[in-house]
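name: query_chain
kind: protein
chains: 1
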Amino acid sequence: MRLDHLVYATPDLNLGIETIDKLLGVRATAGGQHPGLGTRNALVALGPSSYLEIIGPDPEQPKPAGRRRFGIDELKAPRIVGWVAKGTELDTLAAAAADKGVKLGAVIPGSRRRPDGVVLAWRYTDPAAVLADGLVPYFIDWGTSPHPSATATQGATLISVRAEHPDAERTQKMLDALGLDLRVQKGPAPAIIATIDSPRGRVELR
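structure:
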């Protein structure tokens, strides 16, 4: 399904790290700050080229003028709020998606500095363009930057990902139009469910 990473948003980053540590038995590696966005993250590798991003408010940054991404300011507890797909030639990809009625938004640059000083830079379709409550991903191209999974805490392996949505049929059509094979079942609320092998056994994370 070309999954790059899962977005596990939390109202407090330490709470998110502790929750994942208790569930998986893996302590996330500090990722870095997102300058100007009011967030920072911590990472757990889920394989050689995918990872779990725990993202929450950054107390060292001023609160941004608008709402933080991923609904962080409204969250009461950590949860998977979305996922990110690998992509290249993102301008062409976004234009082709728009022709099929899936508006991924503008392609924009992003960057963050790792704790060791290495700056990661990427291009991505706008995460603020939320489709199907986060079940339709945004796309990322890391370019020449090293993939974050290489320095993230090891020990967990992603087995599968599935999704639920009240309007499963419409959501599935958008995913199919993008050539993504995430399966969506009808459910009472939007949800992404990841099955992960970990030191604590096989865990289902929502």
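note: The mean pLDDT is 96.
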